[in-house]
User: Fold these one by one.
Assistant:
Number 1:
Amino acid sequence: MARWERRDVVVRTNATGHALTAPVFVARGRQARPLAYVQANVHGGELQGNAAILALFELLERESLRGTVILVPRANPVSANQQVGDYVAGVYDLLTGNNFNRGYLYLTGPSRSASAASYVDVDSFAAAHESSPLGEIQEGFREALKAAVAAVEAESRAWGTDSRLEFALAIQKMSVEADLVLDLHTGDRAPRYLYAPEGAVAAARAFGFPFVLEVPARFGGALDESAFVPWQDLSDAFRRIGRNDVPRLVDAYTVELGSMNAFSLEAGKEDARRIASALRHYGVLDGEPDAPPAQITTCSVGDYRSLHAPGGGLGDHAVEPGTPVKAGDVVARLVDPSRCRSLPPRVADAAVEVRAPEDGVVLLFHAFSSVPKGARLFSMMTRTRPL
Amino acid sequence: MARWERRDVVVRTNATGHALTAPVFVARGRQARPLAYVQANVHGGELQGNAAILALFELLERESLRGTVILVPRANPVSANQQVGDYVAGVYDLLTGNNFNRGYLYLTGPSRSASAASYVDVDSFAAAHESSPLGEIQEGFREALKAAVAAVEAESRAWGTDSRLEFALAIQKMSVEADLVLDLHTGDRAPRYLYAPEGAVAAARAFGFPFVLEVPARFGGALDESAFVPWQDLSDAFRRIGRNDVPRLVDAYTVELGSMNAFSLEAGKEDARRIASALRHYGVLDGEPDAPPAQITTCSVGDYRSLHAPGGGLGDHAVEPGTPVKAGDVVARLVDPSRCRSLPPRVADAAVEVRAPEDGVVLLFHAFSSVPKGARLFSMMTRTRPL
Amino acid sequence: MARWERRDVVVRTNATGHALTAPVFVARGRQARPLAYVQANVHGGELQGNAAILALFELLERESLRGTVILVPRANPVSANQQVGDYVAGVYDLLTGNNFNRGYLYLTGPSRSASAASYVDVDSFAAAHESSPLGEIQEGFREALKAAVAAVEAESRAWGTDSRLEFALAIQKMSVEADLVLDLHTGDRAPRYLYAPEGAVAAARAFGFPFVLEVPARFGGALDESAFVPWQDLSDAFRRIGRNDVPRLVDAYTVELGSMNAFSLEAGKEDARRIASALRHYGVLDGEPDAPPAQITTCSVGDYRSLHAPGGGLGDHAVEPGTPVKAGDVVARLVDPSRCRSLPPRVADAAVEVRAPEDGVVLLFHAFSSVPKGARLFSMMTRTRPL
Amino acid sequence: MARWERRDVVVRTNATGHALTAPVFVARGRQARPLAYVQANVHGGELQGNAAILALFELLERESLRGTVILVPRANPVSANQQVGDYVAGVYDLLTGNNFNRGYLYLTGPSRSASAASYVDVDSFAAAHESSPLGEIQEGFREALKAAVAAVEAESRAWGTDSRLEFALAIQKMSVEADLVLDLHTGDRAPRYLYAPEGAVAAARAFGFPFVLEVPARFGGALDESAFVPWQDLSDAFRRIGRNDVPRLVDAYTVELGSMNAFSLEAGKEDARRIASALRHYGVLDGEPDAPPAQITTCSVGDYRSLHAPGGGLGDHAVEPGTPVKAGDVVARLVDPSRCRSLPPRVADAAVEVRAPEDGVVLLFHAFSSVPKGARLFSMMTRTRPL
């Protein structure tokens, strides 16, 4: 039986002084580690991860918990409440334009909100731990990362903490502790798929999602990168001084649980089952992961390409998200009745056929069926291969 | 074969002087009347009517057109382009809060943008036409309505035309000419249904939609009301002076073609078939309307009730839109993980079951699965009966 | 010395379950009545009333308080936090388009959110109190109004309270108790001015603002109307049964404290002094009101007219807000460089001169210097006279 | 007399197919070069640059034009029309969160929208032009930059041009031709000041603004950087191969003309006079620049620091923008009435004094007087020195 705790963390204080908080649930098992950090709904319109976490509440009561799981549903009340009409777009902060999943701190390199003094120099660390045992390296490096977080926070005091940094600090104080980080998102209109660190093949298979995008160890501001890139940087630094026995000790995934706006408690149970399989792979839960599906398609995130609308109009999909296509196949029609300049007006004049520029899998369509020219109409995996 | 014309009408000029226009397509048949005015997408996020109009382009080439059809897809480029993130909420003007379908002029009574001088007094008109033949009444009244539109426009010149009135004038100059007005909308998440004027039973059946909301002849600012209420007012005025042979000579419908954000050219063909059936009922097209479905459920629009969320949360539907329920049936669950105050956390603590307060048909769910307290969670037909 | 209390009222609960509250401060003097209710910032961008209330905190400690004052700064945290970029537009709810100052309940007549059962029929009340003494009428009517508020609330339970009604109930439960209601707003770009009930001349003079708009006793949804119209209705009902000794027993004012976005603690002290003068007029504070200024200009709110931009462009004011003008005077220039079609380009081609259509006082300019065609460019008092 | 041309460039096509265009005015003098490119209002709420350009229209008719001036007022109709309520925030694209002044292409290095193939390698260029005369270098490098722009455009065809890139291409096709680029912006609430390239002291003095922020030659996405950094990169590359006679041949400035939302034709004349002085410095106009003011204060842009609000509240400035302060001086008060927890309530409890963390000049305050915690409350020049 897990031992549970609950607290609330403040992620922003609004203009009238109200604190916006996220609920944090901690389930503790037989031992402290491995520790998994799981959050959902950092983008305000991406809801299904909350259903997964709710299902995990009950799953963790049924399964045998070895390590610790931190669960943060509704992690971003700022974004969840930036509603216009009935919709929550949720990706960008209406106040600052910031993508809520691009403002995290790079703890082993320079990032926007931190000075040079406030990150860990992996080469110095490796040099200082040249002959330390792995456990000591792991523990020492984690302490160093936590010290970097604290340094950024201390440094921000004189001039005040900007709201983006406040959010990053609130989340990373939790995630920096983790051996495994899962950031539950959704695509716009998409099947379930996974962003996985390069090389984490067996683990990625444990999730059992049919599509996997491989993420190189380059920091771009997302939570998954903020969690695993420093540990890859550390591994690389040790390799540079000739020590090849220090693997990347933390993995992190962005888990895309279907489409924006969708929310189903029932589907959340299946999502929780897949996450539990991964937790077993990482030893957070006892037992073996589920057998992976017969086929998982993967490509590098660099080969995940977006097609931008060649004109304004109404999008009508010719294929379902998750469908393999050949270069030249019609993927969508983009319809603008004002293009009917000759009479009688004809659908053919209004509709532009948009074709796949390359072979691949159409993974994601724009969330809304009306788009301006230059908006992402769909995204495709290209140069795919089996995982 | 229809004779076609195309023009563009300006519905707003933006701050940089760019005119936002709607395309107007006119198909002329053997005779000028009956004249049907069909527009789509006045609410920027309600897209499917455009697919119906595109399908009507081709249907009107195949069928025998007796009267005239004016077709205005993308009628409201203002709203269609008020996009935040990927979404167009589209009901309310981001500049003024105005519902884009509540600002039309009441041509036989006082409305927001017009003085007493600028509407037709139906009792005076009836008195003056006490013994006129019906055709003369019809023609004379339409001219009077057109004069009222012109008077409002003239009157607005001294102090300038506000943007809401400019939109109303642009549309009503077209719709005032019509014998039949179809305003193509969608529900939030809904099946196809119809707002029909009280008493228009046979016509409403000609559309063949399974659900019909009956609209009394009271002006509330919507286009359908702006079109049929004046003619009902006229009929009532004649009845008051003892003449019972003047029926309402114009009908108008708000046609709800499914859900916001959905857009399908294929489904548009079926929508066009239903509209064509109604056009045949009204004699705009030659031929007979299709046989209506076995069952059409109706209620008065006054018995169409909305349930407001009893708390903030994530909505998970227990029934599909269009489903009959009994009072006390669970219609939706409203989920907020922060309600899990006791540990271990349980889904049951997070989820509030929301039940139907009365018997009826759940017709519409909120467009987005995350709602604040007090938002419309769903709407139900109550006191239903077969049409 | 006033006795103080403080509490917080919930005005909305957001999608993540956070309650948005307004702080309520009550200062109690020697006796319970007269009771003044003063709120600020119902429109999220109209800030200066908060400075006035802060200054009143200290003024009420210095002056002799006879009755009771309820002070609610930041009354609308919903609106205050609907920020886009750096700005809070604040008039319309981004979720529903509702003007936050148009959703109050009409307690002696039908309003949007209430059934016929839930308001007071003034004629029945007058008949039942035909020979009651004034004090009894006052007390009985207030109880009846409170019962109406309670009835609306009870009635809303079955289908849930919509967010607009929830806000109205939260505020009106407080304001219905008051003998005097002050709703502190600001104009867009404007001097200080007052909306005063018709006939409240001496009281309006006590405020000492140079401009007064007279509001007839017709309910349009604003707080001031919600407070004084029922009491005027009561007075009228008694007059209809021949009793002329029942005056309107409650007054209410919308007090416009300069421009949106402006906030000055220093100017708030002067604003508080003016409000204190009115509180003395009404006997809430001991003492006499200040001598009014030499000239106060007034007109009926029906003669307060808005000029809508004749085109899109950049507005440059030719006069300051609060300036008298003659018909034909240039009030503003509306500039759009894209109108320079002939070369060399000339300012004269870009700028349209906008002139006063009538004699009057230019009271208010649009808050932003870029406007689309049809936006309110400025508003003027016409048919002015000294108060 | 200048020879004038006018055209319109499309910067975006919206969802209903309407092209949003910016007007381009070209004034040609005696010779083609030097060529100055001047645009205004890329951020939709920063209006005054348009007044400056209008005044330049007439100034260019009065003065002797040696080279060419391209003038683009209202350069960003996308942003100018992203209005919510009465306000245009204007910095961030409501669709994508992008800062409209951070998406330009880095033509001598990798940028977001371009592959490695589509920028100029300055070292290769320098090597290939090791012994070329300066004029040939200048011309050749400009051709290379134009080829890079064309390459990015060609490369974007297969997958479509995203809206940010489309904007960058539309602007940079014009600005890449220039010897001098002026991007007319405003601060939030600020005096007039200048972002000037490091080292351009005499030129910066020619503008005559009292405050100058020095910008290092590092690309961050802004237009001024996109224009001058490539030429600095080229100069550096020549220096690396031992040739020190190739200066930076293009300068670019972001010119901050006061506060957002302000628009004055009259003030625009003075702004145009200052710009004309700079145009004379650069030889675009004949004659000598005006004498600079007695004192110009400067600091590096790295020493231009922002203070983030320590809590939510209403901001009241203690000093005017442009005021020198000492560390510890009160710069603003941040007021939240809900902080009055003890009774009687006191202003002192509501108001937090915000002090300057260092000596410097308070240059800019937040555009709106209500801010959440973590918003930029004000920005200060620190480590200032005379220019």
Number 2:
Amino acid sequence: MIYEYISVKVFCIITSRAGREERRSAVRVTRRVCNLYLTSLHEQRCRPLTSDSKHGSSMASNSSSSNAQHRLRIISGHLQKRPEDESTGITAQECKAETPKSTPSRLTPVPKRRQEIMKWNGWGYSDSRFFFNKIGQAEFTGKRYRLSGLILPSLKDWFEGTFGANLQHKSPATPTLNLSAVAPPNLNEPFIEELKAVGVAMSHDPEDRVFRAHGHCLHEIFALREGRIGRVPDMVVWPSCHKDVEKIVELACKHNTCLIPYGGGTSVSSALECPHEETRSIVSLDTSQMNRILWIDEKNLTAHVEAGIIGQDLERQLNESGYCTGHEPDSMEFSSLGGWVATRASGMKKNIYGNIEDLVVHIKMVTPRGVIEKSCLGPRMSTGPDIHHFILGSEGTLGVVTEVTMKIRPIPEYQKYGSVVFPNFQQGVACLREVARQRCAPASIRLMDNEQFQFGHALKPQVSSIFTSFLDGLKKFYITKFKGFDPHHLCVATLLFEGDRGKVLQHEKQVYDIAAKFGGLAAGEDNGQRGYMLTFVIAYLRDLGMDYYVIGESFETSVPWDRVLDLCRNVKERIVLECKERGVQFPPLSTCRVTQTYDAGACVYFYFAFNYRGLSDPVHVYEQVEHAAREEILANGGSLSHHHGVGKLRKEWMKESVSVVGLGMLKSVKEYIDPKNIFGNRNLL
Amino acid sequence: MIYEYISVKVFCIITSRAGREERRSAVRVTRRVCNLYLTSLHEQRCRPLTSDSKHGSSMASNSSSSNAQHRLRIISGHLQKRPEDESTGITAQECKAETPKSTPSRLTPVPKRRQEIMKWNGWGYSDSRFFFNKIGQAEFTGKRYRLSGLILPSLKDWFEGTFGANLQHKSPATPTLNLSAVAPPNLNEPFIEELKAVGVAMSHDPEDRVFRAHGHCLHEIFALREGRIGRVPDMVVWPSCHKDVEKIVELACKHNTCLIPYGGGTSVSSALECPHEETRSIVSLDTSQMNRILWIDEKNLTAHVEAGIIGQDLERQLNESGYCTGHEPDSMEFSSLGGWVATRASGMKKNIYGNIEDLVVHIKMVTPRGVIEKSCLGPRMSTGPDIHHFILGSEGTLGVVTEVTMKIRPIPEYQKYGSVVFPNFQQGVACLREVARQRCAPASIRLMDNEQFQFGHALKPQVSSIFTSFLDGLKKFYITKFKGFDPHHLCVATLLFEGDRGKVLQHEKQVYDIAAKFGGLAAGEDNGQRGYMLTFVIAYLRDLGMDYYVIGESFETSVPWDRVLDLCRNVKERIVLECKERGVQFPPLSTCRVTQTYDAGACVYFYFAFNYRGLSDPVHVYEQVEHAAREEILANGGSLSHHHGVGKLRKEWMKESVSVVGLGMLKSVKEYIDPKNIFGNRNLL
């Protein structure tokens, strides 16, 4: 007893120290040092993207002539709608400048030729993928991720055990894109002629077209892996700025081409799929080159940004000035600001920073009717129904979002991860509910079920240190044997706290105290940190599965608190049942986690995957099961989607979700804004 | 020096004790005791409006048949869209029951015959008004308010000094409504016949009609005081429930009558004014009898409420169960839930509870096309553009809001008022901006300018205690002589903190520390409390002013932080200038306060009033000055409205505010929802 007690004490001390070491990764130290340095510089010099003189509102003197001058300057500044400052050299009019005048932060990290760095038939970067090496260990290639270059010794066993799969049974993808399988483009020559005169970059190269013909729904990737190419855009255009977009839309209306806006291409709602019935020339309007931060306003803590910017670039550039938006969807490496607006995106740390609708102060969108935007940057208004909310969630059916003013925050002083082990899922959910009730949720709090906990273990990299391995064993011993948690029922919540250091520690204590009331046991920072780190590599795993007859998808919902448990249990059971009925040979992976908490409910995220070996039409089986799962979600009180959106995948439930009259309102807006259906992706309605 | 130091020390101690005593008003003690009692009862018994058994989601057992039963119960519960519970006896189907089965909380505090308790030509209750007694002291009649029965000795001097008014120069209102001045009703007989069969209460009594013909814009009240009656509704109907409303709307469409929804009648945007050009029969749809809380859901912390409920009644009834919405607009004594939804209302404590768009989880509206509502109570969704935001702010142009599910919170454990004196307005604004930047705003924080500070002093009741009077003098001495604040520049911020006691005290310290950095000096709880208490009597003051040739109005805006000071200064100066140009004899009262803080800006509230003696058309002068003030607001970057809305008063700026395309979208929705313009109040568009 004393021995166990001492061992545990020692283990806790060592663990907390080891946690701190793990935390001091090179990236973090570098980041912190840079922030401190930048903060000190901040007091002294003018930043490249902003200037105090821009706003000019120092205390007005009492003399009436300078009052008048001052007032004129204020008013004209407002009417311009944009603080101009010659010294920065960044103005939107210069968007076609050959040589950007600004600093390296104006890199275009997303090349026009996406194929240079992205996979054509899978998720993410070409240089990053999972594979099983000769001795059956999983590895992750490349150098971009923390997991890169590491070995994951447990993944094979978990994979084969969970799916009844066998590494001998391979279902590899078609390695290269067969360009001759791509239909010749249906080009609208008059449109192209006029567009050339404007100077907008364009292409009808088959590879460029295929890259923009899809998002990342299972059926889309499966088809690509089989080399099946469906309807693809006939050409791609790359506007550089808002004015380019205005011209493109004007010409599209004039010549009746179909425009499909393309941001990061990460849609999981079939939103990017080209409608087969579309006979007009389909033009993919790729926003990736329209990606500048036009200005940062430190007085109001806002930034005005072009909508083609990608999440990771937006944060990286703002970080250089000591700020962030804090908007971190799981897709942020690739998804765009315009895409977030169009789909009502949600980010991991919404508890601090808000969802996209909380983050935007001003939106500008180009539509066939013209540009739509408010004339004011006020924080909150009552000027009839909020037109921002006609744009948010319009999923590319009304126009192209070109510029957005977003709220920014100073980079938090301090970050701390954490994790809690619960005896079972019910206790974990009850804890999250109580945390929400007390309105003390951390930046992020996520509760995974037992299956995901085991899945997380399978993704643990091989540790070079016997010491860490010993600690893991000790932890496992402590939790299961000493504390009596059943490894087949226990669940883990991962936590992230951010902010002022003193407040974070206080907040942390409050949350762990609540967790203890629900049988929760603090399980260290490294488990928390690893959970979040895995977020960005999970999507690569599906490609690995698809190499071995395993297909799967994630889907999500939002639901009131009192239905969370029933919904989770019923949906998971329904998935298992439906798979069985359709001849799936081995029980599927059917797992969920609670990823967001709100006052009145939560967001629940499901993973569903199965071994399709022996099935003649695996994608069809998958679609039927997913359909049944969504019916089960709706029957149990969950919503059609928390943040993935509707696209074409979930259109059939729109009438039920928003009522006949609600759907009619959306259609009436569409018919007014875009009577010729120029923005013809056929999403939503 | 030592003497002063000791005096100040003693003064502070005494003040803080006096503060505490003042705080222990009968109302507060009673409330606290009741809350404690109810909380203890809560654990033991079933509440009249809710029941744990309603939700029935205890931990599911493992047997599959009970699983199936359980699942069926969950699913059918969801499909009903409403947890049914026979034991409470409250169901919507019973809305026409003669004898309500429930407890006294189902009182209808707003009578159909509003004239029984409300003024016909001024603000609020008939029994409550300001007047000057024989010796020129202001008094407040009745027993409803803290101020009732008290004498305000300083008001006369302030009034005469500020407006150049004279109590000898009276401009009394027409004492009684001349019913013969009311045009005979234009009744739509077929409509009435069918409505009678339904059993909906109705009237075409001229007094009932006049009462619902107006809101509280200056021009509306001025006209009533002069006995001028314009276009009024031809009849009034009082639905009891959602089904009644469906029937009324159906019949209105069938027989082409014009429906104008009427909630609390507190509009200050001419929203309730009957369009003169309307030739059809105008039916005022008074929602005041459709006012029940249908259920409280303690698991999800939501309440489902009929939209005719008035703010004070909603809070009072929820308080009985230990809850609140926390939504406290200044109009809450009279304004309705449906009205808040229709106008995008904002409440004093939005920093904790959110504005109306944050509070609603589900809205049901009856439109000419049918009922519009989502099918899910999920906390946040991505199912296309959010249809709630097509309803919020629609200002009665699309239909009648009948039922709303709102978030509720436990009544806070602890409340504490406070106040801070700043040397000048700029310092105060800078402090509020910093509080917003640190995201540590109290439940409420409001900064008034120097004119409002002096106005506040004029409203101080006569103190019976020489002791308190002595303290006031000491405070004044301390602030002006000892600390050196200039009484013609100093400003006061009033604060309200709510929540867990320990957290409140910590929060309070943080805010006062920030205030100190901007030269702010804590000025005691009683100043804060009095500031908030005055909120509900301020509206009665205008009627007093109008008895002595003084007219005025409030108006508001929202504006980015960096423009707050310029906007405040420019708008106030513009008002003074415009009055002078139009022959107003004495400089006007032109004052403002910052009433809400946000991340990206603030809400600013203006009071504007002047002595119109000698002007031939005072209302016209008023309207021109108000128009110029709004132009000045817009030119300085402020919005058209933060929360009052647009109505008919601000329609002309809608195109500029939301763009031509934005306005077109709103019109397209209107044309779809209500092609015959049944909801013909002509607001917004």
